[in-house]
Design goal:
By secondary structure, the chain is α+β, with helices and mostly antiparallel strands. It contains 19 helices and 45 strands. An eight-stranded antiparallel sheet has the order 6-7-8-9-17-13-12-11. The protein has a seven-stranded mixed sheet with strand order 34-33-37-38-41-44-43, with no helix packed on it. Strands 4, 5, 10, 14, 15 and 16 form a six-stranded antiparallel sheet that branches. Helix 8 crosses helix 10, helix 10 runs antiparallel to helix 11 and helix 14 runs parallel beside helix 17. The two termini are about 50 Å apart. The relative contact order is 0.09. The N terminus is likely disordered.
Length: about 900
């Protein structure tokens, strides 16, 4: 059980409704075009790869445009007029929280109430300078000089803070606003992808940085790098005027919305925040510090702005800039039975390595390739852990890890918890939810039987279907007889005939929710009454609506998993045979296209399952039904093929439909659209040495719809992380030379596991803002994320040209010229040998180990012993690369596209050779 409970300011459902919709009304309208020439005279500076435009009055940046990309700007230049005046932050502003002696902390901001700054002479490499003390607010005991500098062809922003008082000053909060054009409001999807950017932090102290990537995934990328004494200690959202009711000095006038995530502060020192705003939150990423200035003493801080030619070139650019680069394999989520590795390339030697909590990580040095330090990392203590590297030049770098149980144990925990603690048998439940697996509130230790967002208690939409989908998907690779018995009962009694229409003209249709709002029928149920007055409290006719296509993959996935279990594991299903489950999966697809065509125009979360259902229909020889599904899906794919960015949604911008779009583009051979989709995913899904951000597909509004504490907030490992990993894995198997794909994909795959606690309870996501730093108590929509994990869990064996032989998801050893890997992923049913382009998957059986001979290409597979429900393995062999060798096993019966291989009482070996 987690040791802390999160405490958040209450947010009413009325507020939720306003937050979710108020700023979205204009989405899709024509983007306003306001060039710098249309504003007041500005200072235009050509610095290396950038044109920098400064406002003449404040000397803050208005434009930072890469000269090689006409028409694009990293800053919101098109909104200069609407973001002018007091309260709007810009690159070049600064925030302070300080005190003298033991007095109260006082806040100061250069943007709160603007006053003219005092220009200073610019000499040498200095492009512009000003004393900005006058615009910081009254009573400031400091003089602040800001400089814009040409630092060897890169723009640099520097501040010199001098204590002008007669007493020492402690700066406990020092923030530099990171204001980039992440505003999607009033932009079409095409405009957003061409013009907007997302910023992601590596909160790694002196080695930290912020990367700013375009939504379309194209280069260049912007890197914000620290100069000496400017660590990225924390990354803090700047509160909006609405959120602070206009009372805070440090705030932002631009509203936060689904179409605008808001802006953040690069925090150099955070001790004052830790003592005040964050006092009741989970532990911050780094130990909070403060800056102490004696009378007359000065401190200079600064940031450099550097262009990387592409997202994949970010790390080479960091190296070229003399920054430390670390690469974690398989990432920064470490099961205790897995050998993880951290590769370090730094301009200064490592002098000390520390783990916090003490002993949470065991680190030893190993022999590495020239230029790299290789560290073996073993997880010892469940939960968050921080690794600190100290360098000879005085720099301090932190790498955030998360230690989990062995993944097979984590799978078992999730299955047990969801089918016991979340199992609901409400005898006489008027909403027809008995039996069910419902959303769980970990904080209250109870099932959520009533929430004003009715779907959360109604088994549908993502926030309500998540729990039972997770329980079902766990059975795909790790079936358990007792758990399957309950899932079959749930499907037979509650899904089919209640949530899903059983027969008639709408057979297969899926309702939005079983639970609904009816105060006349249940006058005492909906309390307090004020919380049930928004659009989220659907009445029965709204809950019964069949038109929301997003709900159909949930039900289809449940049927499909039970089909796979029944087909491959004799005796585990007892209620229906495999034909029944496969047919109901088919019916669900057909019903979606008939009853929910509007939303079916979009890619759907978990929609990958439709591809597998079609594949299984073909394998079973159900020709007519397969042809119908293929016809229906090709209609969707042909529509997407006509779009520049074929993954819109009901939201102005989204990160959850790309996986299904990619799957169908590949299936129907539409390679250009598949490639566009992959690159866009990389635009919002970063590779960063931090478990929370590595592979963390961007999402910041679904706490509104699936969390206990609803607010717009960057979510760590919302379900998009694992879903977006699926197409990246597929792309890597097609092109194993692109290691960036594998690293991002594995970050997302394992990142989703951090939402499962030590007892198996799941969480919708982690609250990333420093005033929370905890998992949301609701299980909510986590099941969509677990779908992605169960679907894609695998071990990848690669010979990295930079790092050497490594395994993502397994323990690798070398002997007598052979590479041997023992899988430690949560499935042990899939393995990819990159040099051979060989993709092995099991629908029954487990991989104990695999040996690969690089010289001959020989592959020897060791399988677990037979079990009563798994007397034979079902092996599928695929060569995914153009130059890969075609393999086949030495024995086994070829049927339904794969090989049935009898298992023995002991582990058995299977040799695979060239056909």
């Amino acid at each position: 059980m987690r040791q802390r409970l999160i405490r958040l300011l209450p947010v009413t459902l009325a507020t939720l409704s306003v937050m979710a919709s108020a700023q979205d009304a204009g989405a899709g309208a024509k983007q306003k075009s306001t060039s710098a020439a249309q504003t007041s005279p500005t200072t235009r500076l050509r610095v290396g790869a950038f044109q920098l435009v400064l406002d003449p009055a404040s000397q803050t940046a208005r434009s930072l445009a890469p000269t090689a990309t006409p028409g694009f700007d990293f800053l919101p230049i098109g909104r200069v007029k609407e973001r002018a005046g007091n309260g709007y932050n810009h690159l070049g502003d600064i925030h302070l929280r300080l005190r003298q002696g033991n007095g109260a902390w006082q806040d100061y901001s250069s943007s709160r109430e603007r006053h003219p700054v005092k220009p200073l002479a610019a000499r040498g490499s200095v492009l512009a300078a000003a004393d900005i003390s006058a615009t910081m607010g009254t009573g400031l005991p400091l003089r602040i000089v800001r400089e814009w500098v040409n630092d060897k062809g890169n723009p640099a922003l520097r501040f010199t803070l001098t204590n002008t008082s007669n007493a020492p000053v402690e700066i406990g909060g020092l923030g530099i606003p990171m204001v980039f054009d992440n505003i999607i409001t009033d932009r079409t999807l095409e405009q957003a992808h061409a013009q907007a950017s997302f910023a992601d932090p590596y909160i790694g102290r002196d080695a930290g940085y912020v990367q700013v990537t375009r939504l379309n995934g194209a280069g260049p990328a912007l890197l914000v790098l620290p100069e000496r004494a400017t660590p990225l200690e924390a990354y803090v959202p700047i509160p909006t005027l609405r959120e602070t009711k206009g009372q805070a000095v440090i705030s932002e006038a631009s509203p936060r919305a689904q179409t605008s995530e808001g802006f953040y502060d690069w925090i150099v020192s955070s001790a004052a925040y830790a003592q005040t705003d964050w006092a009741k939150a989970g532990a911050p990423w780094n130990a909070p510090t403060s800056i102490r200035l004696a009378p007359g003493e000065s401190r200079r801080i600064g940031l450099r702005l550097v262009a990387a030619p592409s997202i994949r070139a970010i790390e080479p650019t960091l190296t070229a800039q003399g920054r430390p680069v670390v690469v974690g394999v398989p990432g920064y989520v470490v099961p205790t039975d897995l050998d993880a590795t951290l590769f370090v390339r730094a301009p200064s030697p490592i002098t000390a390595i520390e783990s916090y909590p003490a002993g949470a990580l065991a680190v030893t040095r190993q022999a590495g390739k020239p230029g790299w330090t290789r560290l073996s990392v073993r997880g010892r203590q469940w939960g968050r852990a921080r690794l600190t590297l100290r360098y000879a030049n005085g720099d301090v770098q932190t790498v955030q890890y998360f230690v989990t149980k062995p993944l097979e144990q984590t799978m078992a925990d999730l299955g047990r918890f969801s089918t016991t603690k979340q199992w609901y048998e409400g005898k006489g439940d008027p909403f027809g939810r008995s039996p069910a697996i419902l959303t769980y509130d970990r904080e209250a230790q109870r099932i959520v039987t009533a929430d004003p967002r009715v779907w959360i208690s109604g088994m549908s939409d993502e926030g309500g279907a998540g729990s039972w989908v997770a329980a079902a998907m766990k059975q795909l690779d790790n079936p358990d007889a007792a758990e399957i018995a309950r899932i079959e009962e749930l499907v037979d009694k509650t899904v089919v005939g209640r949530l899903q229409v059983a027969d008639g003209p709408h057979a297969g249709g899926v309702k939005k929710s079983l639970f609904y709002y009816d105060p006349a029928a249940f006058p005492d149920l909906y309390q307090p009454a004020k919380d049930w007055q928004s659009w989220t409290s659907w009445k029965k006719d709204q809950a019964d609506d069949l038109g929301r296509a997003y709900n159909y993959p949930h039900v289809a996935a449940g049927h499909w998993v039970l089909y796979r279990v029944a087909r491959n594991h004799p005796g585990l299903t007892r209620v229906h045979d495999w034909q029944w489950y496969l047919d109901h999966a088919y019916q669900t697809i057909v019903a979606m296209m008939r009853d929910a065509p509007h939303y079916a125009q979009f890619g759907l979360m978990e929609g990958d399952v439709f591809v597998d259902i079609l594949t299984d229909l073909k394998r079973e020889g159900w020709t007519d039904k397969a042809a119908e599904v293929q016809r229906l899906m090709k209609g969707r794919a042909d529509h997407w093929r006509t779009l520049q960015y074929p993954f819109g949604s009901e939201m102005a911008w989204d990160s959850t439909g790309q996986a299904e779009v990619y799957a169908w583009m590949r299936y129907f051979g539409y390679a250009p659209q598949a490639d566009v989709t992959r690159e866009v995913i990389l635009g919002y899904d970063p590779s960063i040495p931090h478990w929370g951000y590595n592979g963390n597909a961007r999402r910041y509004w679904d706490f509104l719809y699936g969390g206990k504490y609803p607010r717009l907030e960057r979510q760590i490992h919302h379900y998009g992380s694992t879903l977006n990993a699926i197409p990246l894995f597929d792309s890597f198997r097609r092109n194993p030379a692109d290691m960036h794909l594998l690293r991002v994909a594995y970050g997302g795959l394992l990142g989703g596991i951090t939402n499962i606690d030590q007892d198996g309870a799941s969480s919708a996501a982690f609250h990333s803002w420093p005033d929370q730093m905890e998992w949301d108590p609701y299980s909510g929509d986590y099941g969509m994320g677990f779908f992605g994990h169960a679907y894609a869990a695998a071990t990848y064996v690669v010979n990295d040209p930079t790092l050497g032989w490594v395994a993502y998801g397994g323990n690798l050893s070398q002997s007598d010229g052979q590479v041997r890997v023992e899988p430690r992923d949560g499935a042990r049913a899939r393995i990819f040998i990159a040099p051979a382009g060989l993709w092995l998957t099991l629908e029954a059986g487990k991989i104990k180990a695999i040996a690969y001979d690089p010289a001959t290409g020989a592959v020897r597979l060791t399988l677990d012993p037979a079990r009563s429900d798994t007397p034979a393995a079902r092996l599928f062999v695929e060569t995914t690369t153009p130059g890969g060798r075609p393999y086949r096993p030495e024995r086994g019966t070829f049927e339904r596209g794969g090989y049935t291989v009898p298992l023995s009482k002991a582990a058995s070996e299977l040799l695979l050779s060239d056909r």
